[in-house]
Specification:
The protein is an all-alpha fold and 126 residues long. It contains six helices and no strands.
């Protein structure tokens, strides 16, 4: 869980983390899904704290650490940053990777499309 202090936890992430954790706990304890053991019983039996609890503890400690820092440090600057100006209206500008679809493939144009239909020049390029 290296760097988990700064992870952005979305709504589906806790469910996925918990499901994976329970899956591995049951496998470690030797239970299958047909056994009548609840997840809390399995966790108490193995004496394991949940990963989400640890993750929230790490986040809490990191926020307290950043609050103790001066405002001159990078985390302090990022905490108090507020963007200036406004976003552009309308459709976003095209980027370089958006133009690759012009040739009909996601891997970019083929040498034949770039250099034309000359077969002798194309073989030397590839």
């Amino acid at each position: 869980m290296y760097g988990s202090e700064t992870w952005t936890i979305k709504a589906r992430d806790p469910r996925r983390i918990t499901a994976t954790e329970i899956k591995y706990m049951r496998r470690t304890a030797g239970y299958t899904w047909t056994d009548c053991k609840t997840n809390t019983q399995t966790a108490k039996e193995l004496k394991i704290t949940q990963i989400l609890d640890k993750l929230l503890e790490y986040k809490r400690n990191w926020i307290q650490h950043v609050n103790r820092m001066s405002r001159n440090t990078l985390p302090g600057i990022m905490k108090h940053y507020s963007p200036t100006g406004r976003r552009n209206y309308g459709r976003p500008l095209k980027r370089l990777l958006d133009t690759r679809d012009r040739y009909g493939s996601t891997s970019g144009p083929t040498p034949r499309q770039i250099y034309g239909d000359d077969d002798d020049d194309v073989s030397g390029v590839i």
